[in-house]
Amino acid sequence: MKVDQIYTGCLAQGAYYIESEGEVAIIDPLREVEPYLARAEKEGAKIKYIFETHFHADFVSGHVTLSELSGAPIVYGPTANPTFDAIIAEDGQEFKLGNVVIKVLHTPGHTMESSTYLLQDESGKDYAIFSGDTLFLGDVGRPDLAQKGDITQDDLAGFLYDSLRTKIMPLANDVIVYPGHGAGSACGKNMMKETVDTLGNQKQMNYALRADMTKAEFIKEVTDGLAPPPHYFPLNVKMNKEGYDNIDTVIEKGTKALNPDEFETVANTVEALVLDVRHQNDYIKGHIPRSIFIGLAGGFAPWVGALIKDTKQPILLVTDPGMEEEAVIRLSRVGFDNTLGYLEGGFDAWKTAGKEFDAISSITAETFKSRLEQDTLHVFDVRKDSEYASEHIDNAKNASLEFINDYLSEIPKDEPFYVHCAGGYRSVIAASILKSRGFHNLIDVEGGMKAIREVGIPLTDFVCPSTLKK
């Protein structure tokens, strides 16, 4: 028996490859499925089942394409209602895979169809659970995404409490936990950085698995402090439930090379969003006016989903040479399939063609410190509210990136203002959005809070009255 976790850092997502006696099961595959097919072929094995833990909201799974190419059926837990052919398993149903068994444990709460898959080894011993978004390491799945009709988030949290205590916690402490996500995912609040653990350790470490916890306490703690889900979540659920275009079709359309004149014409004709995915340092030095920066080197896909509200938005790419297909694939992972092409020759070709370009004013933390000591500055901290609350520059205002458009009325239009984040990535995203909205009087603080600490700028650790209200 082989069990491999295929972890994708930019999505904080875990897919799984399980093999026994030449038969393979894939759990929660990514949109691009060729690696699973190639792996099975290399091992001389055949994909027998594709298991989905639930209808994912934060990414588009590869289940539909993988089923078409491999012939393997898609398996969901009870109550799932996809529009394509699938096996809707019963609670407790077992699937034979070589010499091992995968058992369905219906664990509603994150969503109503959410299921955990229990892997039993060759001897019949419980070996591991693939818990999807039911149980994370250090946390559990958020219960607010599947509210429908009379079912509230408190109802879902109550179902989750029962699922954990009747289906998962009774399992032996040495059972391995393979979760659907790790730290950085928007599907939970307090996930650990580790991606594999034992159930026994989780019973000790995970607040939601406290043995003496009442259902009322669980509901309160699990629902407290939930941030609003990103706008793209329901759109991804729809795609996972109803199907989508083959990834090869999306790549072919998205990797069409456009010279600067063609690129400009398409952008103006279809009102495409120009998305610059280079490093922030390159974007600062020069970029196409009104383009939006979200760099591949950071949390690319989640930030695309959080900031671009419509997955059908036409997109044109500015990339480093050779990174066009990577950008298209990573956009497709979160349901953005309408990429129309990329700027051939990159930004250098745009400049060489004599096209207009823009830049962002940026200063070092040392220069910023000097200016703070000499004058009262308008400073906007675009980190999350919780980051700001733990530590921030005195009199800086919090304008968290995910809600940056809600703060436009608070930002000065006629005098300089400064933006920073933790390390420099998010502040440049914010700067690109603000410049596209006509705010050209901004100055980015290079290196963000990391550099600010290093130069000794005084910080405060409580939320002051200057915090902006959404």
TrEMBL record:
Pfam families found in the cross-reference section: Lactamase_B, Rhodanese
GO MF term list: metal ion binding; sulfur dioxygenase activity
InterPro entries, per database record: Metallo-B-lactamas, Mito_Persulfide_Diox, POD-like_MBL-fold, Rhodanese-like_dom, Rhodanese-like_dom_sf, RibonucZ/Hydroxyglut_hydro
Presence of the UniProt keyword Membrane in the record: no
A GO BP entry: glutathione metabolic process
Keyword hit for Metal-binding: yes
Keywords noted in UniProt: Metal-binding
SMART domains, per database record: Lactamase_B, RHOD
Residue ranges occupied by any Rhodanese domain in the UniProt entry: 268-359, 373-461
Protein name (database record): Metallo-beta-lactamase superfamily protein
Organism: Formosa agariphila (strain DSM 15362 / KCTC 12365 / LMG 23005 / KMM 3901 / M-2Alg 35-1)
